[in-house]
Amino acid sequence: MTATAPARQKAHSLSPPERRALRSGAARVLFTNWTGASTVPSHTLYPHQWSWDSAFVAIGLRHLSPRRAQRELESLFGAQWGDGRVPHIVFNPAVPQAAYFPGPDFWRSSRAGSAAGAPRAVETSGIVQPPVHALAALLVHESDPATSRVRGFLRRLYPRLAAWHSYLATRRDLGGGGLVSILHPWEAGMDNSPSWDGPLSSVEPVPASAFRRADLVAGSATDRPTDTDYGRYVRLATAYRDHGYRDDRTYAFAVEDPGFNALLAASERALATIAEEIGRDPEPHLARSSALTGALVERLWQHGSGLFLCRDVVAGERVGERGVAGLLPLIAPGLPATVAEALVRTVAGPHFGLGTETVLVPSHDLRSPTFDPARYWRGPAWFNTNWVIERGLRAHGADAMADGLAGAMLGAAAASDFAEYVDPRTAHAHGATRFGWTAAVTLDLLARTGER
Questions:
Q1: So what's the pLDDT on residue 4?
Q2: SS3 state of residue 199
Q3: pTM here?
Q4: Which of 80, 428, 433, 444 keeps 20 to 30 A from 53, CA to CA?
């Protein structure tokens, strides 16, 4: 099967008036989702502040208001824990408890996380999400250096970013090989990826009757994780909370994820540039970035598969599933040319099919029996991961493929009303519409493709 002709044609034929209308629509989404201090991904499904969502939102907001983009990141880091972690959710106390599960009454961060330095004035979750923040901060600064310097944006944010990276590098190297381990599927940001099926198989799910899923109130059950998966997520989060959010190898789930670590490598490189800007030593960040890329290649690269694979730290083995996280190391600085070339081939090859079978890069292997084009991270295409891949392709000289992907993303955003995620073949919308990071990366692509 190939991508439908109408979907492909629409992806590459936006006229100047359509581009202006798309920019206006994306701006409207971000302004509507703004709460006064931060941006919610969606008022229906996700009514609080999410960590890596805010990083992508800031990347888009910089084209509308660099000052507001700075505020987006400052707001998030205002909820940073004493041990350096940046929680994946910062809860808005004005939002009713029933609007999202698991909410603040589940995480109990100010009490259960007190030993780890959880803030007392705001409730958060206790887990983390991919560290895109230093890269976002650098891009925000570069959009208006004068205002950034006057406000001391980077000077104030730098020690918080450094503490965040240090937490990940020291507390989360549970495999001992120089890579960060995630302790919950939500920490990868790719909640129900088939890559977690094996590592989760030994986790006894909490019965569905023990919790209420607010995500099914505003979303279709066919688009979301199953109750069994959700029960396992609740079990893992409960164990982490009841252990005082301590990071060790006692948990049933611990995985080295290539996407998470690649984004940390890219952000360490960005943090080196930030350090130089404010007169600090960039070398420790450059060294850590290089070490992360080296560890990625050594521990997670699978030549026969043509991409990076997750590693189950508990079982001590690689996970065989091909997920989009395995392509994200295209963004990792210093990636060996032979590895980068193989990744580019894999993006366009039969398992992801970009440009032949798919309009956008799917979140999972098209050839896998677990592939589902509609269910969350088990197959649909997401705009943030495609944005990362587009940058990675361009960094390795695959400009034609990157141009095609950028055009396809713009066309899909316009056709889907900025959907949370889409069918990778047809760009049919799934999940929430008018989604924060979809609008944000649309603004960034419009600005960058307009410049070219």
A1: 41
A2: helix
A3: 0.96
A4: 428
Kindly name the residue from 187, 223, 420, 444 that is annotated as catalytic.
420
Residue 101 burial by CB count (10 A; 0-12/13-18/19+): exposed, middle or buried? Answer: middle
For helices 51-61 and 66-77, angle between their N-to-C axes, nearest 10 degrees: 160
CB pairs under 8 A, 24+ apart, for 350-356? Answer: 351/322, 352/324, 352/327, 353/424, 354/401, 354/404, 354/405, 355/3, 355/401, 355/404, 356/2, 356/3
Q: Which of 89, 134, 166 has its CA nearest to residue 278?
A: 134
**Helix segments in 2-65, DSSP class H:** 5-11, 16-32, 51-61
Catalytic residue status for 223: no
Whose structure tokens read 């929680």? 87
Please check whether residue 38 is in contact with residue 45, taking contact to mean a CB–CB distance below 8 angstroms.
no
Query: Is 191 annotated in the active site?
Result: yes
Q: Which tokens go with 66?
A: 């660099």
Res. 451 pLDDT band, cuts 50 70 90:
low
- As a residue count, the chain comes to 452
| 195/342 Cα distance (integer angstroms) | 21
Q: Which two tokens stand for residue 257?
A: 């994820």
Given 123, 191, 268, 357, the catalytic residue? 191
Full set of structural domains in the chain with CATH: 46-401 (1.50.10.10)
Q: What is the pLDDT of residues 219-246, one digit of tens each?
A: 677 888 899 999 999 999 999 999 999 9
